[in-house]
Amino acid sequence: MASCFSACWPWAKRPASAQRRTSTDSRGKGSNRQSFFNLSHTKKTEGNKSNAIPKGPSVLDKVLRVVGSRKEEPLAAMSEWMEKTADPQVVSREAIILVLVGLPARGKSFICGAVVRHLKLLGVRVRSFNAGELRRETGKAGIEADFFSSSNLEAFKERERLAMLCCQRLLEWIQAAPPGTSSIGILDATNTTLLRRQRVLETCFAAAQEAHHDEKSAPLRVIFLESLCSDPKILQDNYQMKLSNDDYKGAESSAALDDFKKRVEAYEAQYEPLQEGELDFTQNRPSDAAMPVGSVQIYDGGQKITCCRTGSSLVAAPLISLLHAMHLTRRQILLAPESNSAGQGLPPQSFVEILKNEEEKEGRIMDVICGASKHAVRIAQELSKVPSVPSASGVAAGAPRGRPRCVLNLRALQGRSADGAADGAATAESYADLVRRMRVEVLLLLERLPRSVLVICPGEDVRRVLFAHFCGCSEVDVNHGTLGCLRSPLGPSGAINHHLSLPGSWCQKSIADLEMPSWAVLELTRDHKGYSCEELELQQQPRHSLSGRRLSA
């Protein structure tokens, strides 16, 4: 056991004779029977250093003399080691190429945006490469549905060229990753034909062979993500949201909808669903390079999910858990402050009015999530008394009665104060700690809820994290060292290697620098790529865009 411990923990290596000598000294002097773990490394002992450390050589000094050339303290070495090995994306170095498959308006772009936002929040190096955006950049925006027909050979060649160019740029981005870094690149295209997917695999396999002979490159893995949908309600909503695409700017809505339906029919005529046999691409190939191929198939926006050959990837684990929680239902998410900038709790009646107005506007019940403070409990009690309007309950329309309003008080929303108690600000934990703690109990819970939800945030730190999760981050230039950190009020000890900045004029700001309106609710509305944001006053009902701008992920 001792040899195993020494192999795993480098700071624990010392001669057996030194161990016996230290134990003998500690038994001989009762005043020195104090573990060095109880020295001045905590706030409680920091103010009493003179009383806590006895005069003369301490046990810590003896240990450091035995170590000899090692100058750093054992606790510092332990902390450094844990920082390096606490993240599975660091321990299991891997480059994942996520290849989207599916017809238009099946939620591929929305799923892609959600994956990028979530993984960036967790500190994963991730980027999306969209073939449609590349086509529009080359001057082919607003083209008619005939361009996507299989009978148009010239257009077919152009679409294949753009798709493979997009794949090549993705691989170049993967290869440019810093040594020891895991990456996830997403190829956002239809990829509806077997020929296209085979060409993508051939290109990725060539890159995997190059990475196999380069010790600094991470091994490659390909995962196909296919979205299949036949739910008419989801398709109708997705069709309407697609009309805001750049291809239909300034077009009349009915004409744009007809053209888009023709585009979908052109893709349906050539659609070849993903088969499990395609995952055996690398078998019987004369090469030492390994490139595992897996698949994830999502049916009707998350009603059913099938995963194949993805369980051995630690880097893909947060991606798979997010896909299990997602759905494509159109809804709104309201992020409200529990208190103002002065720390004074807002009256519960303000939230009651917001809830009533939003439910009347949507025609259905909204769920409510609050913190666990006394004031949050009082707010939750008042909101649970709000009667459901007839149109929201479904009784007036003769529809079956849905489940009642869900009002939750979550302790995970509360920050951790210096003495270990929960409060509204992340004063004793970094933003990275706050994100990790909120991920399962708050973020994935919000993804699972099918209805619109009002989240009453106990602190601005919580609201910043939620806003970053749903509205995304700007691109971060990892290669040029522009990474900031999720800062905590305690200083750089809580730093993590990623920088969150948001769209519009908020670009290049870390998440700690975001200014949240203290007397307004952020209303997030789902669109075809993510969520757009508007501001809703707590005292009055008129809405206006945040600082005069409309934000979208």
TrEMBL record:
Coiled coil: none annotated. Residues 29-40 have a biased composition (Polar residues). Pfam families: 6PF2K. Keywords: ATP-binding, Nucleotide-binding. It comes from the Eukaryota. Residues 93-276 form the 6-phosphofructo-2-kinase domain. The keyword Metal-binding does not apply. The keyword Cell division does not apply. Residues 16-54 are annotated as: Disordered. This is 6-phosphofructo-2-kinase domain-containing protein. It comes from Durusdinium trenchii.
